[in-house]
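request received
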Amino acid sequence: MEHGRADAVHAVEASGVGKVFAGRSGEVVALTDVDLTVRAGEFVSLIGPSGCGKSTLLRLIADLDGASSGALTVFGKPAHQARLDQDYGIAFQQAGLLPWRTVAENIALPLELHRVGKEQRRARVAELAELVHLGDFVDRHPDQLSGGMQQRVAIARALAASPKLLLMDEPFGALDEMTREYLQSELTRIAAETGAAVVFVTHSIPEAVFLSDRVVVMSPRPGRITDIVEMPFAGERDEALRESPAYFERVTAVREALHGAPVERANER
Amino acid sequence: MSAVTAGARDGWLRVAAPVAVGVLGLLLWFLVVDVLEAAPRMLPSPIAIAEELVLRSGIIAEDMAVTATNALLGLGVGAVAALVLAGLAMASRPVDGMLAPIVAAIAVVPIVAVTPILNTMFGASSQFGRVAVAALAAFVPIFVNVLRGLRQTRPVHRDLLRASAATGWQRFRVLTLPTALPYLTTGLRIAGSLAVISALVAEYFGGPADGIGTAIATYAKSGRASLAWAYVAGGIAIGLVFFLVTALLERLATRRSPQ
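response:
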């Protein structure tokens, strides 16, 4: 935490945020009354059953959709301005690489769109390719890579403009368990090396517990935040953690928060 | 090992089978015309046609150049018009609505039907009518394919470019156009053959006294069957070149397309 000034401004600040989609059969409330703060450099996971609005919340932060109500700021700016300023990088469940571009050209895309010079671009791509351990593959095309490698390219691309916020929408959802655990460890390292805050959407409890400083538990109909569970694992996210009793204790805590005892729920309301 | 030899044999068969059919056909043709002498009046022997082809290669090549140039110009003009209009139709719904009936009309009207009118309109010394016919014929398949291609961008790619704060022009250049490229080349492949046929057939209906079509019509009427057929061979050659080049372009473009 050397950047004292950056810490003063929160990466994401949402208060009373809601989203209503106009459907054919009337309005659908996707998200209601969301209050959430993500501090600079913090790793926050959004977890919940499908329809709980976790992806919708991520899309609102990314300004891919506009909020219907409430206030949403990214590094103190409106989400729209933060998007134009490239304050965040984003990765989706599908890697979404452009198939006619090489790995290097895909990673460089955000830089190219913002008219970063050729030399600077080349240097940054080399750096990023090393960061995601794909240095030998920069000249390949996406169809020559495995799913896990494609996802690593997508992460490198998201980091291209050195954003201080990384938005990830189930980036490992389509991968097998082995690749998934490997990439989780990689992401932990990358987040630590870059110092970026991460908002990570997932439906896997162990994944959320392993990666996060805080796990935000959401619930559907209407989509809302029901609980926020703290994870005390800063600096010890290695393979040993996956076997530790403390880890399982947190997994259980998140699972209970997800399923919730009926009595507690009644009290909350 | 056996899979390899089976693959090699399949590859060999793919070349040998059509060649065998061609040789057999030529032999049969030769047999009917030269040995049995049972051919209809306008069907000369393949040897006679080959002789004319060699003997008149200079003039045939000149006429081929005329027809091929008309077809190529028509294909180019048709492709550019189709690209620009498809781009406009994609960008603006009203333009799309206005263009749809025009394109349907062009697609439905048999282009050959208006050829005599165009030829007379632009005069007996101008190639313009022929180029226009080829351009009209080429326009439709390219427009239809490109317009479809421009609408094939995937949501994840659109989200990515929006998240990267790309401008409208950047999105078009980086995503929409490359996505549409395989569709453009498919349109070009279909339009290429159409342009050659149209440019050639247009020559049957007047215009300057050059080109493959004019020569075929002239020599067929005057009963010089071998020479007429030699010109037909020239027309086939033009069609083949157009097809092979556009098919190659299509193959290059689809190599790295999505899915």
